[in-house]
Predict the structure.
Amino acid sequence: MNKKYFFATAAVASLLLTSCSGGGNGFKVSGIVEGGSDTVRMVVEQSSNGRWLIVDSVATEGNGEFSAEMSAPANPEVFRLRYGMASVYFPVDSLEHIQINTNVKNFATDFTISGSHDAVSMMNLDKKAIEINGMKGDERAAAIEVWKKELVDTILANPSGIISYYVINKYIGNEPLFNPLDKNDLRIIGAVANGYYTFRPNDPRTTYLVNVLRNGRAYHNPGMSASDTLQVSETSLFDITLQDKNGVEQSLAELAKQNKVTLLSFTVYAAEFSPSYNAILADVYKKNKSKGLEIYQLSFDANDFTWRQSAVNLPWVTVYDPAGANSSNLARYNVTQLPLTYVIDRNGEIVMRVDDPSKLASAVARYL
């Protein structure tokens, strides 16, 4: 990477610094299990990519109260409190005190969890899944479709979070909520895999997610093996619709449908690198526009005045993201540095990530 082009926004920097909180020896889980005439014996288990490993056992006292303390995980993890065949699931980052209140008769369905934002989110997810699982036929299918649309927003807001991992591995009855054999679902799974690959490369779940993504791509592209699929550092195309310099909404997805090669450019016009970067884009655009090249450029400037001053003279599609450093588009496209450019082929698929602007001309030439 040519360092004169490198620039990290506040959001990018904060994402790179995201990690588990530390300082302490462990986390605590406690609560009440009502309705047991005798001592209720349970186990605490930790998820390991589809397997469950017992990490501790715990029993209630005469009033139904229980408490256990365990070592903090190295990475955010999903745990469950199991009584017989019934389980209550909860996440742990490091030092939380998770409280679980339930009862013997309806251990896994009539429960409450508190102690962290993610714990409450996981509780709500499981209760929604229980509700939908009780539905039948068309009502069930429609409820799943609506819920999945809501969950996509949750995932894309924080693709490297433990809740996103939990969601894409969630089942409704015996059916996966996000199925890698469904091409649209695989895009969402890919967003989580990309998030973990970029921001949590040492997390044990990362390898698992990468393998799921690669196997899914191999399934949808029978001519290629899992090892031949696109690298996980590439990402799926998510639509971006923002206003251009004339106040007209411009859709990335619509532009990518026009059977042209499109460059998706992330930049900040006020940054020191911007003139040199845009000069490279201008040269590539001038030489290849007649061959079917388009550019869709997002700017994350602190104000639209700075953006408009630069955008007014640019010949390609330029849009302004008012969310700036807090934009969800940065997370969706795994933007860890600026400028950053993606190459979208004539089929509307992202085929290359270009971190070094000096390599744009050769990258574009491969697909025109």
Observations:
- The first strand starts at residue 26 and ends at 34.
- The two ends are 24 Å apart (CA to CA).
- Residues 235 and 333 are 7 Å apart (CA to CA).
- The domain at 241-365 is CATH 3.40.30.10 (Glutaredoxin).
